[in-house]
UniProtKB/TrEMBL annotation:
Complex and partners: Part of the 50S ribosomal subunit; part of the 5S rRNA/L5/L18/L25 subcomplex. Contacts the 5S rRNA. Binds to the 5S rRNA independently of L5 and L18.
Domain of life: Bacteria
Pfam families: Ribosomal_L25p, Ribosomal_TL5_C
HAMAP family: Ribosomal_bL25, Ribosomal_bL25_CTC
InterPro entries: Rbsml_bL25/Gln-tRNA_synth_N, Ribosomal_bL25/Gln-tRNA_synth, Ribosomal_bL25_b-dom, Ribosomal_bL25_C, Ribosomal_bL25_long, Ribosomal_bL25_short, Ribosomal_L25_dom, Ribosomal_uL5_bac-type
Name of protein: Large ribosomal subunit protein bL25
Gene responsible for this protein: rplY
């Protein structure tokens, strides 16, 4: 079941680069909320709250409840602009979520038990994580914050593909409908070749 997180938001009455610059100087982040059957809404956030939130994984892949004067609006982050060298969030784009419409979103992969696997315990086996996240489709109620990849049984020479991931109920990977060429490798446990062993 998807877990939601709440962030306070206020309406923004001013627009333009000059106005946005003044907001940032006042510790406020300008943003926009769009999608659904409603007009885009200009909003603003407390920078400190956003800065803390964006350090968490859930900020990028979970449903967020925007609290506007006590009314909650369910959204997903679609874009965030950061300052190139200062610790500042410059702008946020959120998309409204309809509980009856399928979401297409990327969620992070969490790799577990690699250190106890046969491959992980073998010094000359190189285990590489080819993907850090995966693009999924599901209803908002089924949105996972992440997907676990259990590597406990990983041995030298193994390759784990997208089609082998254990997905939560109601979640699918659209790329797999496009054919075997889109069944990408997620994890590779590369054993040393005969040439590499001889060199050692």
């Amino acid at each position: 079941m998807a877990k939601s997180h709440e962030i306070k938001v206020a309406r923004r009455d001013v627009q333009g680069k000059g106005a946005s610059r003044r907001l940032r100087h006042a510790g406020v982040v300008p943003g926009i909320v769009y999608g659904g059957d409603r007009e885009p809404a200009m909003v603003e956030f407390n920078h400190n709250e956003i800065w803390l939130a964006q350090q968490n994984e859930w900020f990028y892949s979970s449903i967020i409840d925007l609290n506007l004067d006590g009314t909650l609006y369910k959204v997903l982050l679609r874009d965030m602009q950061r300052h190139p060298y200062k610790q500042l969030v410059m702008h946020l784009d959120f998309q409204r979520v309809n509980e009856n419409e399928v979401l297409n979103v990327s969620v992070p992969l969490h790799f577990i038990n690699e250190e106890i696997s046969p491959a992980g315990k073998t010094a000359d086996v190189l285990v590489t994580h080819e993907l850090k996240e995966v693009h999924i489709a599901c209803l908002p109620k089924d949105l996972p914050q992440s997907i676990e990849v259990d590597l406990a049984a990983l041995t030298a020479g193994d390759i784990i593909y997208l089609s082998q991931l254990k997905l939560p109920a109601g979640v699918e990977i659209p790329a797999l409908k496009l054919g075997k060429d889109h069944d990408d490798a997620v994890v590779i446990a590369k054993a040393p070749t005969a040439g590499e062993e001889a060199a050692e």
